[in-house]
Amino acid sequence: MSSPVNHLLKKLIHFEKSQVTAVYIQISQQIINAIQRGYLIEGTALPGTRILSNLLAINRNTAVAVYEELASQGWVEIMPNKGTFILMPEQKTARIKATSQGLEKLHDYPKTTGFPFQSSFNLASTEEIAVNKYVINDGQPDLRLHPTHQFSRWYSASMKRASLISKWNQTNEQSATTFNLHLSNYLNATRGFHIKPQNIMSTRSTEMSLYIVSQILIKQADVVLVADLSHYKSNMIFQQAGANIITIPVDEHGIDVDYIKMHFTKRSIRCVYVCAHRHYPTTVTLSAERRLKLLQLAKTYQFAIIEDDFDYDFQFNGSAMLPMASSDAYGVVIYLGKLGQSFFPSFQIGFVVAPETIINEAKNYLQILDKQGDLIQKQMLSELISEGEIHRLIKKNITVYKQRRDYLCKTLQAHFNSIATWELPAGGLAIWLQFEPHISLVELANKAKKNDLFLPKTILYQNKNICAIRLGFGHLNETDIGIVVQKLKTSYNLVVS
């Protein structure tokens, strides 16, 4: 007669071989669940591996793996020549017994602190939750273009490197220097730099880079100049550092450098933040003439230039304009960039290029925030740089993004020709869509949301002179673009009707 335990296991355990989780893990988890629920009590003998394999129609090696997994977690004891028996793992941490009232609240974690603290208004999250099928962002890459299968091989190969463990155990900067050497060589070749590894520091993101730089540069009430329209995240970071943010005008040639010269004096400015290659959010490029003026003014007025080059890799027409940092003979530019934007976000990195004294100080902050970084990521990126894979992937994706840009403009021409204007950007993954006459963008976003299209507030720009959207298209294929533009036009019609 079949054992009651066998009957119970056959009834309780179900698994899917098609799942990512291994079969032996699925079975182990379900046996643990049965123990926790009291279906299998302490001391119960489990069937042998041969019987279990027949019972569940699994390989006997899988049955062995199930019991070994349970034993490793302390749920069973395997006794040679006797069998496998259920254990009840000891509770390692004793519960604190209350001596006052409120026993029912003892195991509810408190929602508020028992001490005062000051929350940060400047760092309040701008994230909005939406369940809409279609979303417009500010110009993010399409993760569907990520080479998943290739990436798995690259990652696996990096994990198997014999030198990886030794790098983890190193207390010097040898491994970081190797990566920085590859990265500096890549930037020298692609951005016209003449830097060495000691001029560069890699971080988790551009935001981390800017946060560290702001901690070094900015003291309370220091003047930081940003464009009249600027990146909200950078402004949050400057405000948190205590900066006095002052805006300067932007036109079709970028920020107005003459305005700085007319309204400020020597040593009255701490730094100027600029997206010289493609201004955020309008996508205009800072002209060569103004770049030279800004470099000279920084030398004369003794302020730093923070050059954020967040989308240098996405250039469609002609050659990308080289960063100001590549022409910096005075040591006034701190350059922020990204690498690996065609990968999943977890394998994108930020980096800082600056004079060695700034990098040395920045590393003091980095060793507190993220001392070692992701060595596997650096190992893999080093190899992809040296083998030319990153360059090839960027070239391949640029073709796709250029087609999407052109299709978006064609679709906008069909639906928004007489009610909005836009420029065909030479690069980047967003366009600057300006409505004329002005409408309520908040109302447009509300109507769009009801039409299954989400417009986050961070891409809406409206004041008495401006009514525009930074419309990101990188994450949308041509089918998506057609649907999104149609939904946007339907929502627009509801606003103006």
Automatic annotation (TrEMBL):
InterPro entries: Aminotransferase_I/II_large, HTH_trans_reg/aminotransferase, PyrdxlP-dep_Trfase, PyrdxlP-dep_Trfase_major, Tscrpt_reg_HTH_GntR, WH-like_DNA-bd_sf, WH_DNA-bd_sf. The keyword DNA-binding applies. Residues 21-89 form the HTH gntR-type domain. Keywords: DNA-binding, Pyridoxal phosphate, Transcription, Transcription regulation. The keyword DNA-binding applies. GO terms for molecular function: DNA binding; DNA-binding transcription factor activity; pyridoxal phosphate binding. PROSITE patterns: HTH_GNTR. Pfam families: Aminotran_1_2 (PF00155), GntR (PF00392). CDD domains: AAT_like, WHTH_GntR. It comes from the Bacteria. In the C-terminal section; belongs to the class-I pyridoxal-phosphate-dependent aminotransferase family. This is Transcriptional regulator, GntR family. The lineage of its organism: Bacteria, Pseudomonadati, Bacteroidota, Flavobacteriia, Flavobacteriales.
